[in-house]
Backbone:
């Protein structure tokens, strides 16, 4: 009887040892894209991510870079109307996302200078400014670039002449929230309001003479030429020299 108990114990221990030695099968989750289709405005951008890629390198490409480009980090930018396919290659696996680019206002969080504007305004303040700016910008969709820039300058100048007060002390005097919502204007505030409108139409802009006690305006690259968009100075046109204004010596 004792021998049988020993045999049973030995068999049990042998079985447990074998179970421990058998490797458990772990199935890794397959890589996949964060989105399978997206819509982006001309000049807007959206970041795509590959989930479950682990440490594998992701190689990004676009079927048509003239419609939508993609960076090495998955940032997709709308270029012109049309559709393109963004491919993320992870090892031997290719993941695809259909991108539709169309003339529309660039969504707030896709603005080229979104983070920059957030340095001056809360999310809700930027949202209100965006909504107010849309009244100027939306009618300009589909127009020529020159008509769009002139339309922004005229629209912002008209706002100022409708009863806004000039201030360099009021809260938000130097940002779009001050210009559109608080109705207080300054050269800096008007320039950033101009920049918001430009961003909404897909333009990047440069703030000339930013944070200086001097006249300020938005500088925009159109093709190989830089343009001035100056609502306060009521001038829209090609700059005569690098960061030079025709009205200023």
Residues:
């Amino acid at each position: 009887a004792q021998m049988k108990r020993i045999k049973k114990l030995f068999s049990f221990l042998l079985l447990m040892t074998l179970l421990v030695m058998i490797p458990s099968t772990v199935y890794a989750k397959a890589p996949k894209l964060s989105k399978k289709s997206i819509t982006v405005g001309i000049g807007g951008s959206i970041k795509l991510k590959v989930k479950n890629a682990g440490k594998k390198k992701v190689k990004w490409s676009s079927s048509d870079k003239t419609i939508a480009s993609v960076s090495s980090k998955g940032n997709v930018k709308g270029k012109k109307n049309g559709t393109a396919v963004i491919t993320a290659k992870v090892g031997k696996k290719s993941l695809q996302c259909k991108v539709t680019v169309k003339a529309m206002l660039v969504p707030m969080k896709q603005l080229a200078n979104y983070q920059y504007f957030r340095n001056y305004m809360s999310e809700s303040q930027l949202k209100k400014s965006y909504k107010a700016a849309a009244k100027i910008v939306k009618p300009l969709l589909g127009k020529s670039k020159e008509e769009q820039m002139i339309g922004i300058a005229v629209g912002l100048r008209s706002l100022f002449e409708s009863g806004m007060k000039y201030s360099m002390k009021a809260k938000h005097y130097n940002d779009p929230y001050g210009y559109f919502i608080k109705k207080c204007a300054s050269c800096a505030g008007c320039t950033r309001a101009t920049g918001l409108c430009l961003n909404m139409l897909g333009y990047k802009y440069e703030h000339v003479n930013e944070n200086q006690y001097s006249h300020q305006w938005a500088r925009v690259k159109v093709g190989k030429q830089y343009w001035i968009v100056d609502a306060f100075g009521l001038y829209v046109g090609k700059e005569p020299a690098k960061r030079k204004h025709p009205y200023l010596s």
In short: Residues 43 and 202 are 4 Å apart (CA to CA).
